[in-house]
Amino acid sequence: MITDPAAFLRHLFDRAVEVADPMRSLAQHLPPRPKGRVVVIGAGKASARMAEAVEAAWGPCDGLVITRYGYARPCAGIEIVEAAHPVPDAAGQAATTRMLELLTSLGADDFVLALISGGASALLVAPVEGVSLAEKQAVNAALLASGAPIDRMNTVRKHLSRVKGGQLAAAAYPAQMLALMISDVPGDDPAFIGSGPTVGDASTPADAMAILDQWQIAVPASVRAALERGSCVVSPDDPRMSQVVNQIYAAPLQSLNAAAALAQAAGCEVRLLGDALEGEARAVAAEHAAMALTIRDGLHPGAKPVLLLSGGELTVTRRGDGIGGPNAEYALAMAIALNAARGIHAIACDTDGVDGAAEVAGALISPETLSRAGASSAAALDRNDAHSFFASVDGQVVTGPTLTNVNDFRAILIMA
Fold it and tell me: What are phi and psi of 69, to 5 degrees?
């Protein structure tokens, strides 16, 4: 019997994060350490933890990994550099320049292990010619506020970069490269994990331009000029891609299945809504709330609880000046749609511990959430101020750096 729904939901989330920890899962996907020169590179919110796991298996290695501020891990040989996320900064740019220089010195007998996870799009920073870091920062901020899906954002990022869209792997040619990835993108397409720095890309600058126009993303004139000059990405058929093997070793579905197993052991009927959901957070929340109410109304007294699980990456179109993120906005919109309905509790969190730009993973809701609020929930939603709302009702989920990233985790517990 589930006596504490909030604790139960938090336990499920913690389990989802735990199984994606690189220290638990990466080593089994490593080959034996090559006998020649080995260089480890990487970028992303999980990359430092991935590097730590590599050295635990292989011993000290040469290399350079870029992670988010606060996400560094101790390594004996691999240098860990911290930089800004989700909007890039000069530290990320300087480290990316050094990484490219390191790769261009390699030969055919050398081996590169690339560690890529979500967040690499911001942490690997090398703007194309004619675009400054400040202009790249402005584009990144505009993309994040637009509500565009992650694959659209990353298509634009690729064509404004000298390192994304296969260019990092091309820089290492003719060295052999194995890229191990943790997926944080709906559909687990390696071309969009961290904007695909080790994956050849068939998109065009015209595709990037169309995305800017479709989502009404204002960009400096230099950005459009750069796109008009032509593509920097590396074609999948380029010979420089022949030395690269890309492998996703951890993905959202694994974490959802681990949480599902726990819930089933606790007596729940589990229904998986999918590991690749996309859409506007508040709209998806309204759909899920309606679904939960229908299910609850069909439960007879004493029926097994039903747990709805989903992953993917929702988006927020920024309308106000509040502090929010897609998971907190989803939770707030769901609380409003449920309107204190009995028997329904939910959690929505990002597995990397950061929802939007806030150092908060997400939020928990219950039938009492709205009644505990001292301010208008609707007004908070209008301002995209979900994190402030949940801070006021003690509904935030704060984990600190989780050192992994398999995207959003949502669970709705429905009891008779």
Answer: -50, 130
Note whether 42 and 83 are within 8 A (CB): no
3-state secondary structure of 220: coil
CB count, 10 Å around CB of 189?
15
pTM: 0.94
β-sheet with 79-83: strand ranges across: 79-83, 62-68, 38-43, 111-116, 176-182, 244-250
Q: For 280, which DSSP code? A: B
CATH architecture of 31-250: 3-Layer(aba) Sandwich (3.40)
Q: 20-53, pLDDT tens digit by residue?
A: 999 999 999 999 999 999 999 999 999 999 999 9
Number of Cβ within a 10 Å radius of residue 116: 30
Domain boundaries, the chain: 5-16+253-414, 31-250
Q: In the CATH scheme, what is the homologous superfamily, with its name and number, of domain 5-16+253-414?
A: MOFRL domain (3.40.1480.10)
Q: Tell me the three state secondary structure of residue 378.
A: helix
- Decide: helix, strand or coil at residue 414: strand
